Amino acid sequence: MPAAVQISEVGKTGGSSTGVGSRDKRTATHSHIRGLGLRSDGYAERDAAGFVGQVAAREACGIVVDLIRWKKMAGRAVLLAGGPGTGKTALAMAVAQELGSKVPFCPIVGSELYSAEVKKTEALMENFRRAIGLRVRETKEVYEGEVTELTPEEAENPLGAYGRTIAHLIITLKAAKGTKKLRLDPSIYEAIQKERVRLGDVIYIEANTGAVKRVGRSDAYATEFDLEADEYVPIPKGDVHKKKEVVQDVTLHDLDVANAKPQGGQDVLSMMGQLMRPKKTEITEKLRGEINKVVNRYIDQGVAELVPGVLFIDEVHMLDLECFTYLSRALESSISPIVILASNRGLVPITTSRSSPATTDASDLPPAAHGIPPDFLPRLLIIPTHAYTPDEIASIVRIRARAENLAFAPEGLDRVAQLGAEVSLRYALQLLTPASVVARMGKGVEAAKGTQITVGVKEVEEARELFLDAGRSVGVQSSGLLGA
Ligand SMILES: Nc1ncnc2c1ncn2[C@@H]1O[C@H](COP(=O)(O)OP(=O)(O)OP(=O)(O)O)[C@@H](O)[C@H]1O
Ligand SMILES: [Mg+2]
């Protein structure tokens, strides 16, 4: 007799809820960076994982990564300090890569904290909590096995309209100790389609929530000619219906959001399966306090484990005194992530309150190193970054051209590299794409045929004429060519 699973609601399952997700796009300019490029003894290769030079800073970041992994780093802060375009943001991205997707990494830019709707300390707090992970081990009642049958049973649409509706879904799962035929609620069908489950996949369905998780492809199919890279897994041991330990990685912010409008159960664990689209419900200090209490209890009971991640604040000179005071207090709390700051400023005045735009220039604070208050600076481990040599710039330009899939003639790349040394690395990297577009112009037919068009010195020069660098732009302005 087919067992029935009653499903009330299908929530989003596990996956990448560690707060990175939608924020990834910003890192496109660093897509060639795949890690810090360190050897197993901790020393840096000159050119590895997309990273060139900046050896000492990479090694220092490697130590930071180790400290984070050993959980010796929570509540501390690191400052990456160096001139523009010396790879500070790239280093932070590399740290994120090294830590892997299970450790939360929350990148923000100092100026993001200023918004008319949200208080800046509130925004800081939210990002702090995005950077603190919780690994929860939960024993769940599941149905797990290889899918050997997947049949939606249709019914006439009761409203008589065009089309049919799905009455229920028949699914047969095979495990080592037998098979089970389940008749499921149609809402699960959507979840199954979302996970792209096909025959021969190994999946599990949570009995209480109806959440579906695809584990991988059954290794019985491993010999089959398959173009996609797929993960093959053995047929699950034991019965189809069983208790299974499920590990979920969430951030404290995920929990705040899920609990801001409680649905169903009262405790955090029952909320785990219900992490849905972020709702715009107010997260209060009181709610956070309650969540902390529950989280601490689960940690004490050994059900959950705290995973302090990284809060990366780029352009830290944008923060004002209030933010810094808040930061030092937050770093001292028992649940805190590692904070990595970056700044390309030397001695500048500390930003004063931005709450009223009219007072932005009325700075009565003395200049401070990196725009960081002198009582906060000593808390930081400072990692300096240095300017690149022409050789290093040439290597970076080459890596970037390859990453953007642009075909350059060697002389073309040499010219870009030369500009990188003369003007700035950033300018050189920005010229790559325009130069390749210039090369494409006027070669419509060839380009349409899909012939690779190589970019030479001429095209680079043309792009250089079209797009000014900062220095030349200032020159044009002050010579009055752009009008008064
Ligand atoms: N050592 C390196 N190896 C490879 N690519 C690098 C290296 N350093 C910088 N880059 C690349 O050069 C560009 C500029 O570097 P990045 O944005 O990290 O500089 P930054 O120090 O953060 O500058 P700013 O102070 O202006 O923010 C990025 O595309 C980055 O990925
Ligand atoms: Mg930067």
Low-confidence stretches: 1-27, 276-280, 356-360
Q: Calculate the terminal CA-CA distance, rounded to whole Å.
A: 86 Å
**Average pLDDT, all residues:** 80
CATH architecture name of the largest domain: 3-Layer(aba) Sandwich
Overall number of domains: 3
* Beta-strand share of residues: 15-25%
Main β-sheet description? 9 strands, mixed
The third-level CATH topology of the largest domain is: Rossmann fold
In this entry the ligands are: adenosine-5'-triphosphate, magnesium ion
Number of helices: 14
Number of strands: 18
The coarse silhouette is globular
What is the name of the CATH superfamily of the largest domain? P-loop containing nucleotide triphosphate hydrolases
Quickly give the structural class. Answer: alpha/beta
Level of helix content? 25-40%
- Radius of gyration equals 27 Å
CATH class of the largest domain: Alpha Beta
Function: DNA helicase participates in several chromatin remodeling complexes, including the SWR1 and the INO80 complexes.
Region (Disordered): 1-30
Subcellular location: Nucleus
Keywords: Activator, ATP-binding, Chromatin regulator, DNA damage, DNA repair, Helicase, Hydrolase, Nucleotide-binding, Nucleus, Transcription, Transcription regulation
